[in-house]
Design brief:
about 400 residues; alpha/beta; Metallo-beta-lactamase, Chain A; Rossmann fold; 2 domains; seven-stranded mixed sheet; 12 helices; about 25% strand; binds fe (ii) ion; electron transfer activity; oxidoreductase activity; metal ion binding
Length: about 400
């Protein structure tokens, strides 16, 4: 496949990243539409690269830089985050960029050297919120955003162009040739992917997000250039900011019910269907036999109510249900939700009790517990319908 072209995305700023059309699993996150690793070259007399790409795209990045300038003219490589999707190519790049200094915060430097010991042989310039990187005609400021989503995460801001380089912030996992929201026909789909990203990456980090938004209030931002997927400018800047403001205030949750279950012989599935049909709220049906956890997380992110069902399987919940609770708990997507539990059993009634302990440990409020032996009879059906009224 030919390389995607470099592209001037703003005055003096070229996109030089990589589009990963093929990646489908990103540390467990199912990226059904691929992703991109967006890196940017800021053309100044002191040329500055902002972020890099995953290791297998290092040569692509290098070729794109060469289309624009001489490698020896690159003076700085700003690293906003040490995770390997943005740093994997850095050790190789530093062998090629003979005059470059790595610019990052102290924690990120430590992470980078732990990940790639060869980097200790290169010059670093350590920055923080009160440090500027003064280039010939551009000034770069730094905004530390710890736990968005690593301790080393930061944003970079160019004062002359009002561009925020937000790394993982405001991104989405999608491989596409468009760069900006205004070029996208299906705008709702990008918002959907942004929420999926928030659910699966930023779930536990609402407080750091609120702090970051507060700290960024004083900045005049005309463009947000992300490190994944689509970037934001013009009328659509507000759309991106609004998504994060809503999430930071927990307003992404709606009166919506996510039903998560696994069924072994059909009884739990039947109970799940009764719950779905009886709900007075919109429902998302997550049969774990066919629904991946990435989609469950997105639905839970938007839902005030969860219903979780499992048969008793050797004295406990099924592995898939336990795994789903484990995943949602890690992302803080059970915390603060009302939860209905339901489960079938043959001779040992344990699944609901086991789930109750896990849900309460995760900060959820159990509002209903319904166990039934073998199959769903009329009494169980009535109990399920009746307990749905607790979701108001
Ligand atoms: Fe990351
Ligand atoms: Fe990333």
């Amino acid at each position: 496949m030919p390389l995607a072209a470099t592209e001037l995305v703003a005055p003096d700023v070229y996109w030089v990243g990589a589009i990963d059309w093929s990646v489908r699993v990103f540390h467990g996150y199912h990226t059904d539409e691929g992703t991109s690793y967006n890196a940017y070259l800021l053309m100044d007399e002191e040329v500055t690269l902002i972020d890099t790409v995953k290791v297998q795209f290092g040569l692509e990045l290098l070729e794109r830089i060469k289309q624009i300038t001489f490698l020896d003219s690159v003076k700085y490589v700003i690293m906003n985050h040490a995770e390997n999707d943005h740093s994997g190519a850095l050790p190789f790049l530093m062998t090629q960029l003979k005059n470059a200094t790595i610019v990052t915060n102290k924690i990120c430097m430590e992470h980078l050297i732990l990940l790639y010991p060869s980097l200790k042989n290169y010059p670093f310039k350590i920055v923080n919120n009160s440090t500027q990187l003064q280039l010939k005609t551009h000034t770069i400021h730094f905004l530390q955003v710890p736990m968005l989503h690593w301790p080393d995460s930061m944003f970079s801001y160019c004062a002359e162009t009002n561009i925020l380089f937000s790394n993982d912030g405001f991104g989405q996992h999608i491989a596409c040739s468009e760069r900006f929201m205004d070029q996208i026909a299906q705008k709702d789909h990008i918002i959907h992917l942004m929420r999926e990203y928030s659910a699966n990456i930023l779930g536990p980090f609402q407080v750091p997000l609120a702090t970051a938004l507060d700290n960024a209030k004083g900045l005049k931002i005309d463009m947000i250039l992300t490190a994944h997927g689509i970037s934001w400018r013009g009328d659509y800047l507000g759309m991106a900011l609004n998504e994060y403001i809503q999430f930071s205030q927990n307003k992404q949750m709606q009166k919506k019910l996510t039903v998560v279950f696994q069924s072994m012989n059909g009884a739990v599935k039947k109970a799940a269907q009764i719950i779905m049909q009886g709900s007075q709220h919109p429902v998302q049906f997550c049969d774990l036999a066919i629904t991946d956890l990435t989609k469950c997380a997105l639905s839970a992110y938007e839902s005030e109510f969860l219903a979780i069902g499992s048969p008793t399987y050797y004295g406990q919940t099924t592995p898939l249900v336990e795994s789903a609770i484990h995943y949602l708990r890690g992302l803080s997507l059970i915390k603060g939700r009302k939860v209905m539990l339901f489960g079938s059993f043959c001779w040992s009634d344990k699944a609901v009790l086991s789930m109750k302990q896990m849900i309460e440990n995760a900060g959820g409020t159990v509002v209903s517990e319904i166990s039934f032996k073998m199959g769903v009879n009329e009494i169980t059906q009535a109990a399920l319908i009746n307990d749905l009224k607790k979701f108001v």
